[in-house]
Design goal:
By secondary structure, the protein is mostly helical. It has a domain of 136 residues: Hypothetical protein, domain 2 (Endonuclease III, domain 1). It is built from ten helices and two strands; from the N terminus they run E-E-H-H-H-H-H-H-H-H-H-H. Strands 1-2 form a two-stranded antiparallel ribbon. Helix 2 crosses helix 10 and helix 9 crosses helix 10. The radius of gyration is 17 Å and the shape is globular. The two termini are 23 Å apart.
Length: 197
């Protein structure tokens, strides 16, 4: 389905948000809300990278395991991870055991720490906020990249980040409220306060 559906609570959501209680709660309380703290943004960078090629529900169901495995997404702690930590995480069945993504999380923690000398991750990411946000009426109208996500991906790579392609960065931008991809007519459209409904 590409249109909004009305849940048993009478609220309109896209079909993906009605797929489970977990997805509904995420949609209703978190997705698209502004995130401005370093640890919160680093967490979402890591989770979006792990999501690449997988469903978001797969990642969301393991989120607490990821938090445990990656020191509650404290960039300083993850930046200090060693090869022993990589080996440990590769054996941790409670997360996604993809070595490239595990190493990306560590690399991105180090890049996040380094970025503090130039204003920090929050200011850096939010400097790519577009002047306008899309207004999709169906899932088919939801863009997967933008000029800004392409530029952000390029800028992050130049700063040493990995697994930060334009599509992944657009997913991040929507998750943290930088763009509002809630469908027009959804009860969450405009919820971030960043954009008018």
């Amino acid at each position: 389905m590409t249109e909004l559906i009305t849940g048993s609570d009478g609220l309109a959501r896209p079909a993906w948000a009605e797929a489970s209680d977990l997805m509904r709660t995420y949609y209703d309380t978190e997705w698209g809300m502004p995130v401005h703290d370093e640890a919160g943004l680093y967490e979402r960078l890591v989770l979006e990278a792990f999501q690449s090629g997988l469903s978001w529900s797969t990642i969301l169901a393991r989120r607490e395991n990821f938090r445990r495995a990656f020191a509650d997404f404290d960039p300083d702690k993850v930046a200090a991870f060693t090869e022993e930590d990589v080996a440990r995480l590769k054996e941790d069945a409670s997360i996604i055991r993809n070595e490239r993504k595990i190493r990306a999380a560590i690399t991105n923690a180090r890049a996040t720490v380094a970025l503090r000398d130039d204003g920090g991750l929050p200011d850096f990411l939010w400097s790519f906020q577009p002047a306008e946000t899309p207004a999709p009426r169906t899932i088919d109208e939801v863009p997967t990249t933008s000029e800004e996500s392409v530029a952000l991906a390029k800028a992050l790579k130049a700063r040493g980040f990995t697994f930060v392609g334009p599509t992944t960065m657009y997913a991040l931008m929507s998750a943290i409220g930088m763009v509002d991809l809630h469908l027009v007519g959804s009860h969450r459209r405009g919820c971030s306060g960043v954009w008018a409904a």
